[in-house]
Amino acid sequence: MLSAGLSTIAGGIVVLCVSLKIFLPYFWEDLVYFLRRKRSKATVKKWVSNGILSITDLFGQRVEKVPHKPFLIYEGMVYTYQDVDRRSNRVAQVFLHYGNLEKGDTVALLMSNEPDFIHVWFGLAKLGFIVAFLNTNIHSRSLLHCIKTCAAKALVIGEGKFCVKEFISHLLENNVAIWLMSTSCPFQHVHTLPDKLHKVSDNPVPSHLRAATDPRNTALYIFTSGSTGEDMTLAASLVFTHCGAVSQSVMYVTLPLYHISASLLGISGCIQFSTCVLKKKFSARQFWNDCRKYNVTMILYIGELCRYLCNQPCKEEDRVHQVRIALGNGIRPSVWKEFLMRFGPIKIFEFYGSTEGSLSFLNYTNQIGAVGRAGIFSKFLPSFELLEYDVWKQELIKDENGRCKKAPIGKPGLLVVQITEDAPFSGYVGNKEASEKKLLRNVLVEGDVYLDTGDLLMMDEDGFLYFTDRVGDTFRWKGENVATSEVAEIISMMDFVQEVNVYGVSIKDYEGRTGMAAIVLRPHYTFNGEKLYKHVVDFLPSYAQPRFVRIMDVMQITSTFKHQKMHLANEGFNPEIISEPLYFMHEPAHSYIPLTTEIYQKVVSGEIRL
């Protein structure tokens, strides 16, 4: 009797497993990922109930448990959890005694990858300051714009970062205190930080100063992603646990720390008792040597990074390493396949997310090309939709009732995320107009509100999500978001430019799109390639500098008087197709030179690298 019962149960289990394999082939992966997310949410809730309301609170707890464990390795130097804690305490003490700042003030940080980036970040956070990470490639007007936008009361400049020296007087006149990571300074009224660190103690600052009161308080400003709350930094510290990371993991961070992937996913992720190997600058040649030297088990990437690694000469030891997890975004399917074939069985966790909204996707099944998956448990995630979008008119397609239409399976749609009390939208700092433009109202029913991500995604019949393209005023190049409106504003300063339209064009074997500017010249003016070259180099970071220029008689616009970008982008930069004058940014000549068929062929073949 008992035997028959057990046989029945066993048979039922077999039937269930077979049925799941046939009808729900990804059930177990979906379940494991769902449980990990649920556990992470419960962990954050528990932290908050125990008074851990910020990333520095969490770090302090880790210091108590593993004070002597290596937290950071930089250029061969090892910094334990306790080392980082004590030096960040000194930074906090310096600003407490000399800073003349109050809790809630914003301090901008312009530093390259180095241990003191983390020391300063944590030290400022311990005083309740909001830290704004600035892109170290920006300068001139763009830098001033960022500082003004986040209402920074102080600016900390890393050693050697004197690109703002011509603006120091302007900043001081606007009551922005300037701190240099140098022991001496040639400018008056500018503070130096390192020489003051040994004058103060490494004791924690008083608890009433450093204690966060609400995990939803703003912790970081990351350009151009808006604000990031303490709750998001806490949640970000758990992302690698979704990928199967353990406390013995060693993470290799080569991305710039001002980038959200390096700071929130990298440094915050390591606070789960892991160790971070920090690199000053990415080096494809040195990458795997470092991984072997430091026994790295996890890496962060952007699509370009993986391609750079694949472009290196093959070596016998390519598969000799301990890397098992790679987390990032932007890797092309072809590079993905080549990367795995060459460097071995590494689990690649491609993700999609933005700090504007509360939604993120993670490809936890290693489906090549996908950025995530809407499995059977996706109803427990913040609500999202893929809406039909007219890429030519750059507008949503609506039905006869004025409601948006959902994109069919297998077709790209605009990703929108529903705004609710549990999934809020904090908006862009100092720009209510831009924040409001991101919101879509009465999308599917009266009264609903969705966040427009500006991204086109496609869902296949198995629920896998694939990134298709960006729409609107932003494209991605060299791992950076390029705002076309900002580039156009800089180019429009030229005396010979009447109208300019900036967009991204695709090039074979390159991730993202590179910049191209369509220009209408002022009457009686001629195009000056040397002048434009000098101008964009002076005012724009390298990734935002348009590589191609197209001279047009009349700018193409939509019925709502918007520049038509998609049509121009699809036409590309082929001089055999486009009859209008084309120019190419040629660094050796320090000028934009005529784009010939020969130059075009060298660019698309890879002989000329961009």
TrEMBL record:
EC number per UniProt: 6.2.1.3
Regions that span the bilayer: 6-28
Source organism per UniProt: Malurus cyaneus samueli
Family: Belongs to the ATP-dependent AMP-binding enzyme family.
Official protein name in the record: long-chain-fatty-acid--CoA ligase
Keyword Ligase among UniProt keywords: yes
GO molecular function, one term: long-chain fatty acid-CoA ligase activity
Any one biological process term the GO annotation gives: long-chain fatty acid import into cell
Domain AMP-binding enzyme C-terminal, chain residue ranges per copy: 486-562
GO cellular component: endoplasmic reticulum membrane; plasma membrane
Domain AMP-dependent synthetase/ligase: 61-364
Transit peptide as UniProt keyword: no
Catalysed reactions, semicolon-separated: tetracosanoate + ATP + CoA = tetracosanoyl-CoA + AMP + diphosphate; a very long-chain fatty acid + ATP + CoA = a very long-chain fatty acyl-CoA + AMP + diphosphate
UniProt KW keywords: Fatty acid metabolism, Ligase, Lipid metabolism, Lipid transport, Membrane, Transmembrane, Transmembrane helix, Transport
One family name in Pfam for this protein: AMP-binding_C
